[in-house]
Amino acid sequence: MGRNLFENLLLYYFELVEVKEEKLIELIDKVPEVMKTAFISTADRIRQRGMKEGTQQTKKQVVQNMLRKGSTVDFICDVLEVAPEFVEQVRKEMEV
Fold first, then answer.
1. CA separation, residue 11 to residues 14, 16, 35, 43 (Å)
2. Residue 55: half-sphere exposure toward Cβ, Cα within 13 Å
3. Tens of pLDDT along 49-84?
4. Domain total for the chain?
């Protein structure tokens, strides 16, 4: 199986099914040795992407809360280390 196809299948599987860490370890043990490195690196990328998306969602929620409390864009950007464009995007989404 080609490496790109393998990675795409793993991505599809992990996005389709919530895999707990114990199950992931069990799956890794069943993967042939030749493919373990690719499997582990793909799993790590998926985990990192999930953490990044979670962090972004958290920042978005905090920006919304700060805007509701009357914080200025400059203050929000300074405290959360986000771009003014991000704050404005969140503000527009709140208006919808």
1. 5, 8, 15, 8
2. 9
3. 777 888 888 999 999 999 999 999 999 999 999 999
4. 1
Which letter, b or e, does each residue of 75-84 get, where b requires 16 or more Cβ atoms within 10 Å of its Cβ?
Answer: ebbeebebee
Residue numbers of the domain that contains 24: 3-95
- H or E segment and range at residue 30: helix 21-30
CB 62, CB 80: distance < 8 Å: yes
Give the gyration radius of the chain's Cα atoms.
19
Residues 6+ apart with CB under 8 A from 87: 63, 67, 73, 76, 77
Residues 6+ apart with CB under 8 A from 56: none
Q: Which residues contact 64 (CB under 8 A, 6 or more apart)?
A: 90, 94
